[in-house]
């Protein structure tokens, strides 16, 4: 449709990310919301808005295992946000990635550099420079976790070399994640290659 061709793939992606942040941060997790609530100000109609809603649904499920149900032009999130991170045992790659990063942070005096995250995944034969067959684009996911306040990113300038990127638990993780929920992940990570992990 002409409407859709006016919207580039990049701006669709941008809109999808903003909408997901809005859904999660505006606590639409227990009450219903309309399409206009999350596509506020975006000049999209008809097929384009359907494309965007489909992408939002797909991504929410891929990253958080959350489903959106529709009824009479209203939407609800089926799994309230305080339940999102209960089951890190899930086979959801995005959730598992977040769990691993949060666990690495816990086991590294509450902060970890991007390079340390990278070397952990490289040791696991996980692709960090391009899309990994299981996790997808790790840099992009880290960026999304940061936007959704699961991670806090600190950029530390270093003399005579590139700045260091440091991650800590973000506000949302502190509110929503019980460290007990990370236990299965710790077990899994240690059984894979214990020597690659920072000491507890």
UniProtKB/TrEMBL annotation:
Pfam families: MAGE (PF01454). It comes from the Eukaryota. GO terms for cellular component: nucleus. Residues 93-200 form the MAGE domain. PANTHER family: MELANOMA-ASSOCIATED ANTIGEN MAGE ANTIGEN (PTHR11736), NSE3 HOMOLOG, SMC5-SMC6 COMPLEX COMPONENT (PTHR11736:SF14). This is MAGE domain-containing protein. It comes from Panstrongylus megistus. The lineage of its organism: Eukaryota, Metazoa, Ecdysozoa, Arthropoda, Hexapoda.
């Amino acid at each position: 449709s002409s409407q859709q061709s006016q919207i580039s793939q990049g701006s669709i992606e941008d809109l999808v990310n903003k909408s997901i942040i809005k859904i999660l941060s505006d606590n639409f997790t227990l009450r219903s919301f309309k399409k206009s609530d999350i596509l506020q100000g975006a000049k999209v109609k008809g097929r384009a808005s359907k494309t965007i809603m489909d992408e939002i649904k797909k991504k929410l499920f891929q990253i958080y295992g959350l489903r959106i149900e529709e009824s009479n032009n209203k939407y609800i999130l089926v799994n309230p946000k305080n339940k999102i991170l209960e089951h890190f045992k899930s086979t959801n790659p995005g959730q598992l990635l977040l769990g691993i990063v949060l666990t690495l942070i816990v086991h590294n005096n509450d902060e970890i550099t991007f390079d340390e995250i990278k070397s952990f995944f490289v040791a696991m034969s996980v692709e960090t420079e391009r899309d990994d067959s299981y996790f997808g684009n790790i840099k992009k996911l880290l960026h999304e976790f940061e936007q959704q306040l699961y991670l806090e990113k600190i950029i530390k300038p270093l003399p005579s070399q590139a700045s260091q990127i440091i991650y800590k638990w973000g506000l949302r993780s502190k509110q929503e994640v019980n460290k007990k929920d990370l236990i299965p992940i710790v077990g899994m990570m240690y059984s894979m290659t214990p020597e690659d992990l920072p000491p507890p």
